[in-house]
């Protein structure tokens, strides 16, 4: 029972990890809370569903979800972030909020407010390992998450784009003096972040075999809590915080009732904000404070 | 006045109070995304006081405002060490926690909601809204406002000239919480039925939207914003299902063209040349 819940928690945690990484990519590099990510996650799910319903395979759905969400993220960056680069941090947050209102409304009108159900199972089959039963979908969610995180890590740590991203995160002006095209780099950061959110949307949609326009507010917002717990200045904090919060939430549902799970998740976030604002993995205090 | 108009007017009054609760906190440079939480506290407490304890509505509202203000100060003290986006995220979490709490609080109906309140008139709602608005405008004309603006512009500098930024920020947070509670109490007695879903993240966002659209640097901006937010959807009915998208576009457009919102100091001075606004 306990181990079973652990597996379920890790699956949810994997999705949280992806969305939290999506939030913290933009937050860590630009210091901006992109509230539209919650809806990019939802949109990604719908794009993926559209592909699956056309009887196309899951990898294609994943790519469609990621590409679609990345495209929308690019629009958000051009209209909702670029013009407000010099404004106080609250302003770009509000403009991305505007996008999130638009995207949710569009999704409600295009696909309806009722949950969209997957008619036939994408992946069937379960594997029994001792007392634990893992479905093929859960394995897929975990596997895809690990793969995407590895890809992102490679991109950020080993490629020239990644170096440019880190340079802009460190100091935008100096990076520009050294010839980094900062405008293009922020666009790439937004699109990468959108792609991650889109992938998370497809995965959660396949996992629940259903999706609603409100899933962004229900799950996407909680990823902000996950990001905070992991630490907003180090994007890799999400790797620990995601699984942790997923397990905490599933355990709360299993042993405390499903009603108090939001209470526990957000309470955990506030506790971290107050006691350890740099997050679980954050460095010294000198690291933070400057971003806001 | 038709029932329909009266309903709209009441909605404007309640939204105005909610927007003002955000405005007071924003004046010190803090953004709260959790004022629906304080609104919920106010709504549930007022309803309990009038329905179960049998208090008259005015007394109940005052008690709720005081209690919520105290909670605001208690929450504000630790929370205001956080700045900017971090505070916004913490208040977002607080609001969701309050909603989640009432969802489980079976003594007040839990997720089934709570009813039994008596309906209050539009005039009563507007009396409260007008009192709070005038009070805030009076504060805006007083030296206290200079201190508040100093804290918003540069906290460190304000501290260096002998102001107490923490006191001012926590005070503003408490006042905002109290005003939000009044909005909640009136909401409960206007709709005579409340459920935890009434006080969700979307509600907090409505308050912030009203302030930003109407004008975030002057108190009457909240009034303009509340009117826009309630009346415009009525005129946008031809857009039917696309109303909210139009709203989001309006918000982005407003931020692009006029970041300070519809009303600002310059506009007020232009409209009333001799006033000190």
Question: TL;DR?
Answer:
Chain A is mainly alpha-helical and 292 residues long. Chain A is built from 11 helices and 4 strands, in the order H-H-H-H-E-E-E-H-H-H-H-E-H-H-H. In chain A, the strands form 2 sheets. A two-stranded antiparallel sheet of chain A has the order 1-4. In chain A, strands 2-3 form a two-stranded antiparallel ribbon.
Write the layout of secondary structure elements.
The complex is a heterodimer of chains A (292) and B (277).
Chain A lengths: L1 H29 L6 H17 L4 H24 L8 H22 L4 E2 L8 E4 L2 E4 H23 L1 H11 L1 H6 L4 H27 L1 E2 L3 H16 L6 H20 L4 H15 L17
Antiparallel strand pairs in A: 1-4, 2-3
Helix pairs in contact in A: 1-5, 1-8, 1-9, 1-10, 2-3, 2-4, 2-8, 2-9, 3-8, 5-6, 5-8, 6-8, 9-10, 9-11, 10-11
Chain B lengths: L2 H25 L7 H17 L5 H23 L4 H21 L9 E2 L6 H19 L2 H11 L1 H6 L4 H27 L1 E2 L6 H14 L5 H16 L7 H15 L7 H7 L6
Antiparallel strand pairs in B: 1-2
Helix pairs in contact in B: 1-5, 1-8, 1-9, 1-10, 2-3, 2-4, 2-8, 3-8, 5-8, 9-10
Envelope shape of chain B: globular
> In the residues of chain A, how many domains can be counted?
1
Instruction: Give the N-to-C terminal Cα separation of chain B.
Output: 32 Å
Taken as a percent bin, the fraction of beta residues of chain A is under 5%
Count of beta strands of chain A: 4
- Write the H/E string of chain A, N to C: HHHHEEEHHHHEHHH
Main sheet properties of chain B? 2 strands, antiparallel
Strand content of chain B: under 5%
Tell the overall outline of chain A.
Answer: globular
What's the total count of β strands of chain B?
2
- Estimated helix fraction of chain A: over 70%
> What is the CA-atom radius of gyration of chain B, in angstroms?
18 Å
> Uncertain regions of chain B: pLDDT < 50 for 5+ in a row?
none
How does the helix and strand content of chain B classify structurally?
A: mainly alpha
Helix percent band of chain B: over 70%
For the record, the CATH architecture of chain A stands as: Orthogonal Bundle
Strand order of the largest sheet of chain B: 1-2
